[in-house]
Amino acid sequence: MRPWVARVLGIVNTIENWLIATLALALVLLSGLQIVLRLLEHGLVWLDPLLRVLVIWVALLGAVAAARQDKHISLDLVGRFLHGRGLRVARLFAFGFAALAAFALLRASLGLIEMDRESGTTLFGSVPTWWAELILPVAFGLLGLRFVLRAFAAPAAREGGA
Fold first, then answer.
1. Over the stretch 23-45, which tens digit does the pLDDT of each residue have?
2. What secondary structure letter does DSSP report for 46?
3. Which of 101, 84, 78 is nearest to 147 (CA)?
4. Helix extents (H) in 42-121
5. Are 60 and 136 within 8 A, CB to CB?
6. 9-27, pLDDT tens digit by residue?
7. Where are the domains of the chain?
8. Virtual torsion, Cα 12, 58, 155, 137, nearest 10 deg
9. N or C terminus of the chain: which is more exposed, having fewer CB within 10 Å?
10. C-alpha closest to that of 52 among 156, 120, 112, 124
11. Alpha-carbon distance 82 to 85, whole Å?
12. 44: closest CA among 33, 59, 60, 56?
């Protein structure tokens, strides 16, 4: 890998990690705040929809981060029996299919955003629903890109030295 590519990927990985950590921390703190406020019978009406959005953002960004080095959910049965060229071909098909699915979901999410933007629906207050949905095409696009890169990369080292 060229040094500038590694540097750019390192920056992207760092941004992803900080964004996930920040959003997860906000999710925990705001959830705790809502619990305390509800115990005092003063819950914030807009906080529950925001928390649902934060869960989706953290989950999708976590999926993107997990796809970096084969840390996502996968069925490893075929990979345990194949080696060399057979493993590379199986990875190409598996990750190629995953990339196609991610790009199809990217396209569908763009349609959803356009539909919600045109309808003018709001999440809470005057915040448009489509703002919260922006993570969908971003995450599916990044997942698709990561799957394409993984399709042509060497498999991550297996635990146990295999």
1. 999 999 999 999 999 999 888 88
2. T
3. 101
4. 47-66, 77-81, 84-119
5. yes
6. 888 889 989 999 999 999 9
7. 3-161
8. -70
9. C
10. 124
11. 8
12. 33
